[in-house]
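Risk mitigation, structural track. In case the binding assays with C2G fail to produce interpretable data, a predicted complex structure has been prepared as a fallback.
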Amino acid sequence: MKRVITYGTFDLLHYGHINLLRRAKAQGDYLIVALSTDEFNWKEKQKRCYFSYEERKMLLESIRYVDLVIPESKWEQKRTDIHEYHVDTFVMGDDWEGKFDFLEEEGAEVIYLPRTPEISSTQIKSDLKNKTASARKDIS
Ligand code: C2G
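Fallback model:
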């Protein structure tokens, strides 16, 4: 059984995330998602999530491509995760191209997949903000 792992925040889950998870699963038979905790997101990525870790975890666990969700609480855990979860392949979107090649030293294949270009959680938030603002203008 080929085991794949990927990492991320997955806030405001959207089709770009699903495209990534589908292609990551296609690299093997079992997909582990290391989901950034709320603390990790704020401390390390200055991201305030709309959905809490538990809510984001529940959403991910409902996706057919995802077999296991574990917490991502620090950058450094990737090396040990490879061994602890017997991972064969590490997958990330290509916005991270080259950043995790060192995991090959742990015996994992490292794959970067093209991002889905036109969608992001940040984009969703700003679109919603603009739409609300323009809607307010229309009715005022
Ligand atoms: N992604 C994608 N297309 C998008 C948006 C995201 O392919 N339009 C991919 C990203 O490249 C990443 C995954 O979906 O592989 C999760 O994206 P984020 O939740 O933004 O994760 P990120 O903040 O990049 O955290 O240790 C690694 C970090 O936890 C990654």
